[in-house]
Amino acid sequence: MGLGELAAICAAIVWAFSTLLYKTFSHHLSPLQLNVSKGLLASLMMVAAIVITADSNIPQQVAAWGWLIAGGIIGIAIGDSAYFGALRNIGPARTLIIESLAPALAGILNILLLGHYLSTLAWVGIIVTTVGVVIAIRPQHALPSLDKRHYVIGVSLALLAALCQATGMVMSKGAMNLESMSSLWAAMIRLVSGTLTVALVVALIKHSDLYQAIRLKGIDKKHWLLVAVFFGTFIGLWLQLASIKYTDPAIAQTLFATAPLMVMTFGFFKREPVSANMILGGVLALAGVGILLAN
User: Fold this and answer.
1) Are 237 and 187 in contact (CB under 8 A)?
2) Are the beta carbons of 249 and 110 closer than 8 angstroms?
3) Phi and psi at residue 33, in whole multiples of 5°?
4) Cα distance between residue 101 and residue 104, in whole Å
5) Cβ atoms of residues 178 and 43 within 8 Å
6) Distance from the Cα of residue 166 to its chain's centroid
7) Of 61, 165, 168, 174, most Cβ neighbours within 10 A?
8) Which residues, 6 or more positions from 197, have their beta carbon under 8 angstroms from its beta carbon?
9) Which of 261, 271, 285, 259 shows the shortest CA–CA distance to 22?
10) Cα separation of 158 and 89, whole Å?
11) Cα–Cα distance between 98 and 158 in angstroms, integer?
């Protein structure tokens, strides 16, 4: 297992843990507000980490900055906001199933934007892993029916989130292909550009909403949001950028997509019911990951 694959698996673990916490706040803040709050907090953490580690390996080329800023606006400002919006409209089950398209999209965008082709074995690993995740997270019971408006909006937002997250990953890889840079600096540039974009949109829509997102006024259990941001955004995004520095973004995105399986694993240790679909999907996903690592 290379450094990139190891970082991607660790990113999936911390994202799975933080997702359980983020769900608590998805109904207290709008998707845009939640994006601003977690982006601002994580940006401060990254600045502190850069100062403490005396990391001076900042990108030098204008083109690299352009790739990272564009990747932040698309992947974080648009992608994360769309993801939170999808959670509110169609729930996590439907959202995660649609999100499973992200690895394949990353592979296609990798060809279109960077001209990099994956091997046949790598594509087999991506497909097997994706199918396994979809089977594992597929609801065992009929999901609550939704009105047409919420369903169309939610599905559209989930598709947009998958496309934007894949695009952001490939763009970040494009920046790292240009020159050697610190994954922490790359993560911070990407996060700050995305957060500032969302903050500007929130301020234009309703100034008081931006104030609430910054101050978190009226939000209970703020310490749990801080924990979610620390693991899911600060550590998670740092690990994501480290992973694509050392491996292909499509492979990294596939390993990120195993996060729902990590959530189910947490549930297993809490003695929550385990279905046949979860076991079958988990075995398939692990087989797919094995193929990717062997490749």
Assistant:
1) yes
2) yes
3) -65, -45
4) 6
5) no
6) 9
7) 168
8) 72, 73, 77
9) 259
10) 10
11) 6
User: What amino acid is encoded at 227 in this protein?
Assistant: V
| CA 257 to each of CA 10, 105, 214, 275: distance values in angstroms, whole numbers, following the listed order | 12, 12, 30, 20
List CB contacts of 12: < 8 A, sequence separation 6 or more: 255, 256, 257, 258, 259, 262
Q: Would you say 181 and 57 are in contact if contact means Cβ atoms under 8 Å apart? A: yes
Gap between the Cα atoms of 97 and 89, Å rounded = 14
Alpha-carbon dihedral angle through residues 158, 164, 166, 172, given to the nearest 10 degrees: -150
Q: Would you say 3 and 241 are in contact if contact means Cβ atoms under 8 Å apart?
A: no
Would you write out the chain's pLDDT as a tens digit for each of its 295 residues? Answer: 688 889 998 988 888 777 767 666 656 677 788 888 889 999 999 999 999 999 999 999 999 999 999 999 999 999 988 988 887 788 776 777 788 788 888 888 988 888 888 888 888 988 888 888 878 777 666 656 677 888 888 889 989 998 999 999 999 999 999 998 999 999 999 999 999 999 998 888 877 778 888 887 767 777 888 888 898 889 989 998 999 988 888 888 888 888 777 767 666 666 666 677 777 877 888 888 888 877 6
